[in-house]
Write a structure and sequence with these properties.
single chain, alpha+beta, Aspartate Aminotransferase, domain 1, 4 helices, 36% helix, 25% strand, YjbR/MT2646/Rv2570-like
Length: 119
């Protein structure tokens, strides 16, 4: 069971990433691009994910993952139930979302510094 406390440090440790609060919701950004956002009650994590792969992700584990609301379907976005995720799985999803919004050289540098993946 993942909690916000399990993943929050990662969002500020990743290069170019910073946290903001928008209408009371914690979000992680690179420049102005949001790649992870948490619900007000911190039980749902929305994260960047390739549009063409999200239907398979949701269909494969519907107890963990949900499609975003209709208004957000145009974005590369998926929702996850934090309680259904293992902390390591949640950290991996955050790093993968971050990879979508940073230059390739930045994500490669992360891989060299973290050969075993996110803590």
């Amino acid at each position: 069971m993942a909690l916000l406390e399990d993943v929050r440090p990662l969002g500020t440790e990743l290069e170019r990433s910073y946290e903001v609060y928008v209408r009371g919701r914690l979000k992680f950004r690179v420049q102005q691009i949001v790649y992870v956002a948490f619900s007000l009650d911190e039980t749902v994590m929305g994260f960047a994910f390739p549009r063409e792969e999200r239907a398979a992700l949701v269909a494969g584990e519907p107890h963990k993952f949900q499609m975003p609301p209709a208004a957000d379907m145009r974005f590369n976005w998926v929702h996850a139930d934090l309680a259904a995720l293992h902390p390591a799985e949640a950290r991996e999803l955050i790093v993968d979302a971050w990879r979508m919004v940073v230059p390739l050289k930045v994500s490669r540098a992360y891989d060299l510094a973290n050969p075993d993946g996110p803590g």
